[in-house]
Write a structure and sequence with these properties.
- With 99 residues, the protein is of the alpha+beta class.
- It has a single domain (3-96), classed as uncharacterized conserved protein from methanopyrus kandleri fold like (2-Layer Sandwich), CATH 3.30.1860.10.
- The chain is 16% helix and 42% strand.
- It contains 2 helices and 8 strands; from the N terminus they run E-E-E-E-E-H-E-H-E-E.
- The strands form 2 sheets. It has a 6-stranded mixed β-sheet with strand order 5-1-2-6-8-7. A two-stranded antiparallel sheet has the order 3-4.
- The protein is globular and about 35 Å long.
- The protein starts with a strand and ends with a strand.
Amino acid sequence: MALIIAKKNSTHGSLLVITDKDILGKRFSEGKLQLDLSKEFYQGEEKSNDEVKKMIPEARHLHLTGKEAVALGIEMDLVESKNILYVKKVPHAQVVMGE
């Protein structure tokens, strides 16, 4: 499965927004929680897992949404299962990389 990557730059360093392609453009709500993947924030370029793995070390923050994206974070030992938020069974995790 392909991932959609959006790279953002801020005063706190670069942010990689990594989203599963198949959920891009959708909105998920559960109680007070919401994932709105239709926003421009999530729009980016399609990349393979290998391409994303090469980009991750350069980022300061990661924003992972979807089964594939979060699984990649777990595979790279960046995300612990206890830190995953689920909205309508869609996993989401945020990571601040070490300095």
